Amino acid sequence: xxxxxxxIIFSNLFYKLKELVKExxxxxxxxxxxxxxxxxxxxKQRQYVGNIIISVLTEAISVRKGLLxxxxxxxxxxxHAAWHALCHxxxxxxxxxxxxxYNNQQIELLEMIAFEFxxxxxxxxxxxxxxxxxxxxxxxxxxxxxxGVVKKLFRFLNI
Length: 159
Fold this sequence. Notes:
Distance between the termini: 88 Å
Oligomer: single chain
Radius of gyration: 26 Å
Number of helices: 8
Low-confidence stretches: none
Mean pLDDT: 79
Structural class: mainly alpha
Number of strands: 0
Number of domains: 2
Shape: elongated
């Protein structure tokens, strides 16, 4: 008789503990879902930029045209880094002509960016950090409307 009382007590304790863990798990899951809903989703924009970079690398479009096709007003640091990587690819034509290894490194970087973006993934933080000093001159971050015009004017005046 005594054994059954102890087993009943342990089974009740086990049941209560199981319910408590289940409640905590559900609340944790809800809080994670709420946090991800607040973060903006840049997947479509990254995939679009990945297609632009592939088009540039396959010479379907020029680098200049590719830069102009980047989404305006995008706040994704990965897309800003990709824009600057493409700018550096175009700006370093003389160095690439002299140094084949440098040219290959730039092409590999752009390929890696394009393939990360094809899946909608962000770039690794070290690549984002490498281009971060250049973000203040980034024309793709200008908004449309009066605010964007003022930013462009200040950049033109070098203020």
